[in-house]
Amino acid sequence: MPSETTKPIRYIPLSYNHADSQASALRLVLTLNPHWEGPDNQIEFVRFTDGITNTLLKIINRKPGLSEEQIDNESVLMRAYGNHTEILIDRERETSSHALLASHGLAPPLLARFHNGLLYRFLRGRPASHEDLVTGIVWRGVARRLAQWHAVLPTEASAAPAEAVPMTRPVDVESLKLKKDDLTLITPQQPGPNMWTVMQKWILALPTATDEQRQRRLNLQKELEWVVRELDDGTGLGEGGLVFSHCDLLCANVIVLPDGVTTADGDATATVNFIDYEYATPSPAAFDIANHFAEWGGYDCDYNMMPTRTVRHQFLSEYVRSYSHHRGIPEESQPEIVERLYEDVDRFRGIPGLYWGVWSLIQAQISQIDFDYASYAEVRLGEYYAWRRELDGSRAQAGEEMPLRERRWAQEA
Questions:
Q1: Whole-number Å distance between alpha carbons of 200 and 188
Q2: How do residues 78-130 score in pLDDT, each as one tens digit?
Q3: CATH 3.30.200.20 residue window(s) in the chain
Q4: Least crowded by CB within 10 Å, which of 29, 89, 94, 281?
């Protein structure tokens, strides 16, 4: 008998309607759980608003006599996709990633798909704030859990549960009706979907209605080509330098569980889980970690919150201890791995700015969410170009002050 995480995923032929939220969500959950109908049931909806891409609802049935924990254990999360986000996110791959994670006990069971979203089990705990991320009790938990992801999850799509979902295919540029124009597409070292091919797909999807837009897309493509030449070298942790990564480990996607653990040396460490697997794909471990560090500043990009050299080293030491535990790496090898990973994360510190900058330029064109994506794109791309200027020395040659993000990154303690 297949388990809840490996049995074929049910498809419900209904849609969530953003303009008729409660009624359409109710139809979906009653189709999933017909036993929730009737006078003994009291269904409630809780909207989570931290995300800037999708609608996320917690659907609760407050049946009389149940404790809060029992109610939570039966609750359902409904994720409905934002308009046109299929341009940015491979939804088939998201579903296969969720099924893969659930089969390893790293995600809540996936209950059903519907036309424009997913239904899955609620995960108890509270979303972290970006202030939480900088506290030792939380970042130690994040380091341990992220290392577990990178150590135990396979990077090949064929390693997902065979019965769960059909596998995604490599991006077909022509089928997406995207114009290559005069762009030279990248050829990453590892075939198949990964962080590099995602960035290529996004650049191809950038608007090209004006000469300015076409030139910007060409410039960003050249940056991607340069980055791939410099950083996609097949080294690093994992298979061919890639591990299965979350790629969107912002504070709201870190769930702090009600209980915690205490290590032998007395450092309290929270138990955390990760949610939202839309962007999960193979990537260099250093990118996933650098991307998480970038989120310590929150949506407002408060660079004063960025981890210093000392804190990054402590985080990576915790990460490598956990990674080594799951991979069976002897303790005497760990210090060398920490130092090498520390250097790799430093090399990747500017890439999240390019990644989310391009993403935001697309969102500025397609999203109906009340968020200033255009301004956010300039902030994130500014991080990338500031990193580039530190690398080539042009900022120092111009006699300009080092930007706050770079100063904070270079700070010792």
A1: 10
A2: 999 877 788 888 888 999 999 999 999 999 999 999 999 999 999 889 999 99
A3: 10-123
A4: 89
Helices 309-327, 285-294: axis angle to 10 degrees equals: 140
- The helix (H) or strand (E) run that includes residue 213 is helix 211-231
Please spell the DSSP secondary structure of 94-119, one letter per residue. HHHHHHHHHHTTSSPPEEEEETTEEE
Q: Which helix H or strand E contains 262, and what residues bound it?
A: strand 254-262
Does an H or E element contain 407, and which?
A: helix 404-410
Listed residue (185, 238, 197, 205) closest to 344, CA to CA: 238
CATH of domain 124-413: 3.90.1200.10
What pLDDT, on a 0 to 100 scale, did the predictor assign at position 23?
95
Cα(48)–Cα(110) distance, integer angstroms: 19
By DSSP bridging, strand 76-80 and strand 110-114 are: unpaired
pLDDT, the chain, mean:
89
User: For residue 34, with 0-12 CB atoms within 10 Å meaning exposed, 13-18 middle and 19 or more buried, which class applies?
Assistant: exposed
Greatest alpha-carbon pair distance for the chain in Å reads 74
How far is CA 98 from each of CA 232, 249, 289, rounded to the nearest angstrom? 26, 15, 20
Which structure tokens are listed for 92? 């088939």
CB 249 within 8 A of CB 291: yes
What is the rounded CA–CA span in Å between residue 337 and residue 278? Answer: 29
SS3 at position 394:
helix
Between 176 and 68, where is the model more confident? Answer: 68
DSSP 303: G
Contact present, 390 and 406 (Cβ < 8 Å):
yes
Helices (DSSP H) in 232-284: which residue ranges? Answer: none
What 8-state DSSP symbol labels residue 242?
B
Contact (CB, 8 A) for 309 and 223: no
Say how far apart CA 42 and CA 53 lie, in whole Å. 29
Residue identified by tokens 């509270």 is 126
According to CATH, the topology of domain 10-123 is Phosphorylase Kinase; domain 1 (3.30.200)
